[in-house]
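Please produce the structure of this protein holding adenosine monophosphate.
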Amino acid sequence: PPLATAGPIFRTTMTQPLTVPPGQKIRLADFDPRYCGEWTKAQAEPEIEKHVSALSELTYRLYAEDRRSLLIVLQGIDTAGKDGTIRTVMRGVNPQVCRVTSFKQPSAEELDHDFLWRIHKAVPGRGEVGIFNRSHYEDVIVVRVHELVPEKIWKRRYDVINVFEEMLVESGTTILKFFLHISREEQKERLMARLADPTKRWKFSKNDLLERKRWDEYDRAFDDALTYCNTEAAPWHIVPADRKWYRNLAISRTIHEALAKIDPQFPPAEEGLEEVLID
Ligand code: AMP
Ligand code: MG
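Below is the modeled complex.
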């Protein structure tokens, strides 16, 4: 069925929507991870450059304004491109303005608390951009696939997450959630590339192969997280990510649109600056 289209501002030729109206069942199988509309890499590259420099300017304003924040959540299976997205799309952002948090297996101290404890500590303050490389969604994805907590517990977490995110939004945070969607074939290519390249081999873990065996279970966990946590306040973006350039285009454009909508303003200067003399 035709679905609602993504943001109108920079919309050109994309027809596979990035977003789905809340309440609709999301099945990744309905989405093409190789989708790239009518774009070519050569057309996309200058466009990505434009968005990257717009992000530089708009995040500078967000920081100066010091009232609102932006939280970018990146989820996706191993090799989906979470690190590459941060490296490419956010490269123009002043490190003073943004903070990246990579969520790994919880520490003993983190496990001693509720699952949102470590997440809440990492959310961006006013004037800040927060980037989550993995997130609280691990607590309904990997935790479910590996049965780390009983179903009764993780099932409740969708509602808890929705209320938590809504609270952040009401407190002045814009939340952009990106699911980086790659195909099983593309993951194979990327894992092989990691093995073959001595500068990438450090990223390879035999554990990734065990996770890969659970592809279908992960897909079911993703489908449910995308479906149940796709809210008005914080909708999911399902990013076709087999082509890195298209992924970068879709994400940089979405962040640009969101910041343009926030439209952060420089605070007014002190009064009487016209008469100031500096000797
Ligand atoms: P990487 O992103 O490759 O550095 O790997 C981080 C690992 O930590 C992944 O295998 C995640 O699934 C795992 N991880 C992150 N958050 C959690 C969590 N809440 N519970 C269990 N494992 C987690
Ligand atoms: Mg890894």
